[in-house]
Predict the 3D structure of the following.
Amino acid sequence: MCGLVGYIGDKQAQPILINCLTRLEYRGYDSCGIAVSSNEIRVFKDAVRVKVLEKAMPRLSGTLGIGHTRWATHGEPSQVNAHPHCDCPGRIAVVHNGVINNFQTLRQKLTKKGHRFVSGTDTEVLPHLIEEYYDGNLEASVARALKEVEGSYAILVLAVGEPKLVIARRDSPIVVGLGDRENYIASDVPAILDYTSRVLYLEDDDIGVVTASGVRVKNNSSEVRRKEHKISWTVEDAQKGGYEHFMLKEIHEQPKVIRDTIGGYAAEGEPVVELAATGEYELGDVLILACGTSYHAALIGKYLIEELTRTPVRTELASEFNYCGRTSAENVSIVITQSGETADALKAIKRLRGEGCRVIVITNVVGSTASRIADRVIYTRAGPEISVAATKSFIAQLMALYWLTLPYSKIDTRRLDNLITELRQLPGKVQQVLDQESVIADCARQLAKFDDVFFIGRGINCPVALEGALKLKEVSYIHAEGYAAGELKHGPFALLGKDAPVVAVVARDHTYEAMLTNIKEVKARHSPVTAIIGEGDGEVEELVDTIVTVPRVEPIFSPVVNAVAIQLLAYYAARERGCPIDFPRNLAKSVTVE
Ligand code: G6P
């Protein structure tokens, strides 16, 4: 959701900004731009991808600059709406991530005072407002301007003749990368991994001044210290490593991600010690909230926790939860967010905490906002996920949920031991799915010929069907719907036929017989069926047109192997259609606005 970068030091800013923006494009990519300051501020921006901008750009000399890659909220993607935005004399330049809710009021007020606006964005009020209060002290004028702003923002501001960058945040992330006589700013760590692994994070309502030699931060006019963190991710983690797309690389990383995530909780042979064993939490009623793919992990968590612990679980989309009339306070609230920055998820955490609930966050990003406002954090170890479509972060979230749930399970010790043993074998099982890549790619090429696809599943694999449909539509632009298999007959049947294929996710559990019936019903309506089945399932094989076989696993782990199969299906369907897989149109990796 918009990426911003800044540099101040003794090197030329332009190539550094361009490099950082390239690494940050997954946050938004409908337009981009940079501003470099020396004796004057020079801005270059357009509604193009960073690579194209770089080629068209003149040399902008200066060792101080800001850059932005945009995901439009107010105003269509165009050159004039691209960031940076400036005040009219061009003395102040701003890049912004977030939404200024009261921009209309501010714009009217500023227009009356003689400010002239050229774009359709909310952001443009910021440089004008800052200019209005600017009297030679940039930090003070930014602080004064932000007092009038309602909404969310992460901003970087520079002014002619000021050898500094002023930065500020509210509800949108900013990370400062610390260098040697130089400093970097970005909305996300992967942008600056090439240059430093020492970072600090701004908190809400912080205003900072970054110079080549240091960072000063104030909150509510008082000087504050923000802790330095060491990032363990490497530059290679955030590169394609020979794969055609990040999505494919990230799918292939999943055996390692499973190993790393589980290994991060306990080494082999160590006891399963999580919240249960530490006595920190009683597992009573559970609430799980999330958005997008993380929501599908939440749904799998519901089946898992209810199956193993008999504890009721309520799951909700964080964006809906924020507007529901809440009546009950569950005693464990879990929020799942890979980025730790999704606005709806953060709002839900704040609401829950405001109501006195303790919140456990499952996130992949150390130091993310969610991790800092939660009571308890369970980290996944997926490494940086660059492709907009989530894959390895989803599998890592499932690992966190298994690990969280197993200690609470009301099953005998032997079964528990068996489950833990099988959990540790999942990397090998996932590798077996990856080894089927060419078969799955063939199926995907068939699917790619259609414009509408249904995914169906039951029980713990129903969310896998939802995730399959989400993945397919996200990256291949094929219209896809995920359905609980039993619900298909309550409407979607009207759409079945030879042009509407169905992908059935079948597990050998108590849902099996019902799934067979559903597949027969679909076949009777002439829809081609692809089934994802466990090895040696001859019964289903006879019923359907195409099969993708995955290794047999304990039913509660079947979502893991099935999910990897649907990820590959989506990837290869998108590839067949020539889609921009890592950066699907209109989407962004981290949605930091409501
Ligand atoms: C965006 C991404 C999805 C992701 C969702 C939730 O829509 O494109 O891949 O699942 O946000 O993100 P989160 O970081 O909260 O898990």
Q: What stands out?
A: The two ends are 11 Å apart (CA to CA).
